[in-house]
Amino acid sequence: MARAGDFDGLLAVLHPDVLLNAGVETVGARNVIKRALSYNSRSRFSALALINGQPGIVAAPGHKLAVAVQFKIVDGQIVDIETTLEPQQLQALKIALTFSTPIEA
To answer: Are the C-beta atoms of residues 85 and 93 closer than 8 Å to each other?
Structure first.
């Protein structure tokens, strides 16, 4: 949604008090969107996935898994976003891609 410029749509799926844990916690839908946009350069290497059974996104530049982002959804809104960057933690995740090819930017 953010890549397509649909910020209203993105705001609609984020809980107003959503928590993003990406090493540093970020609270609030607008703050999370601002933070997510700073990672937009990785989006061309991203794909939708199920991560430990939860909806999420993985990024694998150079075909090497670099980040996994898991979403916790309650009542149709994302309430928690957990980012995993550490290689050992990434290896422990059960990841199933929902598309066979990366999403193009």
So the answer is: no
Q: Number of C-alpha atoms within 13 angstroms, CB side, residue 13?
A: 11
Could you give the CA distance from residue 99 to residue 96 in angstroms, rounded to a whole number? 9
Tokens at 69, concatenated: 């982002």
pTM for this structure? 0.82
Write the single-letter amino acid at 96. Answer: A
CA 73/CA 58 separation, integer angstroms: 17
Cα separations in angstroms, 56 against 47, 49, 83: 9, 5, 10
**What pLDDT does 44 receive?**
74
pLDDT bucket at 101, cuts 50 / 70 / 90: low
